[in-house]
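CORE FACILITY INTAKE
Project code: CF-77B
Contact: R.S. (postdoc)
Sample description: multi-component assembly, two entities in total
Requested service: structural model of the whole complex
Turnaround: standard
Below are the sequence entries exactly as provided by the requester. Do not edit them.
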Amino acid sequence: MGEDDTSPLIALRDVSRVYGEGEAEVRALDGVDLTIGEGEFIAIMGPSGSGKSTAMNIIGCLDRPTGGSYLFHDVEVGGLDRDQRAILRREYLGFVFQGFNLLPRSTALENVELPLIYKGVPPAERAARARSALEKVGLAGREHHQPSQLSGGQQQRVAIARAIVDNPMVLLADEPTGNLDTHRSREIMELLSALNRDDGITIIMVTHEEEMAEYAHRIVLFVDGRVQSADFQPAAREG
Amino acid sequence: MLWETVRLALLAITRNALRSFLTVLGVVIGVAAVIAMVTIGQGSSEQVTSDVESLGSDVLMLRPGGGFGGPGASEEAANFTLRDAEALGGLSVLSAVAPVVSSMETVVYGNANASTTVTGTTSDYLDVGNWTVLRGRGFTEAEESAGAAVCILGESLRQELFGNADPTGETIRIDTVSCLVIGYLEAKGAGMMGQDQDDLILMPIRAVQRRLVGSADVASFQLALTPGVSADRGTREIEALMRERRRISVDEADDFRVMDMAQIASMLTSVNAVLTGLLSAVAAVSLLVGGIGIMNIMLVSVTERTREIGIRLAIGATARQVLTQFLVEAIVLSVLGGVIGILTGFGIAFVAAQLMAIPFSPSVEVVLLAFLFSGLVGVVFGYFPARRAARLDPIEALRHQ
């Protein structure tokens, strides 16, 4: 994975993100260099306010850097407008959030189908693909449950199914286990590891839990808007 | 994709059915009002037209005073007399000349009494107005010239005083005058203005003049044209005759007016049109208010669903897709309101038509117009909230609780 002879999937060069102007200026990111290869499983860690969420938003093309260069798949994201970034998200990225962010009054199946609706996939194919994504995350038989009828762990599985339903290259997970107990958290991490290992999906995860970070191949540590360490090796896990 | 969006919009609307209904209530009321007004207006115009047709276009009316006889208009002008009737009777263009003088009186028979208009006239009145004496007879010449206390009842009044009994040969009291009923008329139903045409009593004009009014004046004439004579020619000859009789010099204006039924009908129809127009304007304002209501609720909805919008944007919805979703929702909402309004409006118009005894005449154009207009309300008032939704920053939107 992550061969060095091809250009990397994600390449941030001297990226900065500045909010406000003059006195009120806040440098959330200040000269970040980061390279992530295809098929990697990265954990981003750091104290709150270190810029890890901002970095995540930029990598996820939800936000644009105010300085430097961000190449995704050799495309300069800084030069894309709102809709072009939306299409990039739709085609290549999947998102998993701490708060699950499912549509409350829609069924699991409808939630998973959502990205495909925006791609214009016909209904029958959509339902079939959503079903198989739900099966993959171990929720076969729960297609018609609404989020309120599912446990936190199950809701996060629905969110993961939604993120992978269109076979993304990269899955971005922002504190995916933040709202779950240890047992459920491990199940989710096992699921992410399997997606990385079996389907070759690149996973970038923000977390503050060491235990969860250990599932990653390497840990990127953010401090004060800079990358302090980009290839911290997690302690080898048992089993 | 569009059908999909409409389906999603319907889903969002039905999830909050009560709020959706209250939201579109303004549009419902506006559209219902427009539909009801226009339909009722059209029905009553049709009624006027058919009334005029049933009266025949060969009927003219002669009144003192210029113009349409507003307050005071007839005061300066001399009234007509029965001599005028004789003179008019000499015109070959007229086949019937009915002088008319009327008076509001209380009519009593036994325990029953009624307040009605007593019309003093001649037998010609029956010809001009197409009245049929259902039972009994009309006035004889002797009764007319003597001003005998005899009368003919209209159907409504007969019902009121006698129920279903035969009134001929009975004596009723009109004011202080005892009066023999010699016949009654066939029912005609409601008139042009929705009034009851059958609420009347006919008496020989001399009887009314002498016994009830106490003056020899004739208030107006109802005239029937000889078949084949145009209303224009009739009017011209009557005007010439009256100008001569009333000694109006060439440079003076008429102090009387000849109206044909077509004129009267167009007057009534135009009153109708003005009323319909005014009420429709009120209805249009209500549509506008309804539109603002929709905009208001859509804005609330956008705020409420900020997080949902954030999710949709994050997983790859373009700004255009979000805009379309909210715009379609507003349009579906207001078109639904329009449909409910159209049905309600027709319901109201149908009931009103029954009550006013006018034809129920729904028109396709109005339905299309109301439909289009409610859709337009959705577009206009839905665009601003939809644009706000589409312009949300996905990161901010996702953070929104």
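Facility notes:
- The CA atoms of residues 19 and 236 of chain A lie 39 Å apart.
- The first helix of chain A runs from residue 52 to 59.
Invoice: internal transfer
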